[in-house]
Amino acid sequence: MNRAEKAALQLQAVSVLRMLKETRTYDELAELTGLPAGDLNRYVNGHVLPGVERAREVVEGVGRDALADELEARVRFDDEGYVDNSGVVFDQSFLDLVAPVAANTLNFERPDVILTAATDGITLGAAMASYFGARLAYAKKSKETAVEDFIESRQRLASGIELTYYLPASAIDAGERVLVVDDLIRSGETQELLLDIALQGDANIAGVFALIAVGDEGTNRARELTDAPVGALSVFE
Ligand SMILES: O=P(O)(O)OC[C@H]1O[C@H](OP(=O)(O)OP(=O)(O)O)[C@H](O)[C@@H]1O
Ligand SMILES: Nc1ncnc2[nH]cnc12
């Protein structure tokens, strides 16, 4: 880890602690993190930065569980089992906390490009791109105007409907590492299309990450298509 990455991790830990402090006293935060209340006070107020090891423990350990709880409190299922996740994908500051947790728990190789699918993957993709200092690219269900060359991938879904995603060919260079992300993975059909687009662009897959996996069908499907890490922040049955 270079100096800038250490500093980014330390600042992320402060963001996680501030988020947790919103609904807790310092004593409760001390109990949750195992860190002294006085130290936590200094971190939350920005007087002192946590050391790198403490920062890592906060972001990886406490951070992941707390974010998963927060995510679960924010999503709603309708009567047919569809997810309303607007409380999550509309909140860029929440997504900014997810990026380092995803990166640290799944151990992706540092990507050059984050690839997602319009529409709902874009805000998570932007948070991940910003965290890694990578570019963001999103495939769309229609062709962008004035772009001449596209990579496209088409699939007939279980429902019989054909789905095509288009990505401007200039978005990925051959040999780049691509991390595929999305807000939600259920059947895995969208991830399969995104992985196909990345492979058509001669990219290397750095991993697949979703905020929410509904069941394990989609993540299993992605695991069959790549040896890179595949995971979700929360799995809903
Ligand atoms: O694993 P799957 O079964 O493919 O489902 C997941 C996909 O479905 C949703 O997108 P949707 O097609 O609803 O488009 P949107 O992002 O524009 O809402 C979601 O954002 C994922 O991209
Ligand atoms: N919002 C949603 N909830 C559950 N499954 C989905 N598949 C595509 N969009 C979905």
Automatic annotation (TrEMBL):
EC code: 2.4.2.7
Keywords annotated in UniProt: Glycosyltransferase, Transferase
UniProt keyword Glycosyltransferase present: yes
InterPro entries: PRTase-like, PRTase_dom, Pur/Pyrimidine_PRTase
Top-level division of the source organism's lineage: Archaea
GO molecular function, one term: adenine phosphoribosyltransferase activity
Pfam families for the chain: Pribosyltran
UniProt entry tagged with the keyword Cytoplasm: no
Residues of the Phosphoribosyltransferase domain: 95-213
Cited NCBIfam families: PRK08558.1 (NF006328)
Protein name per the record: Adenine phosphoribosyltransferase
Originating species: Haloferax mucosum ATCC BAA-1512
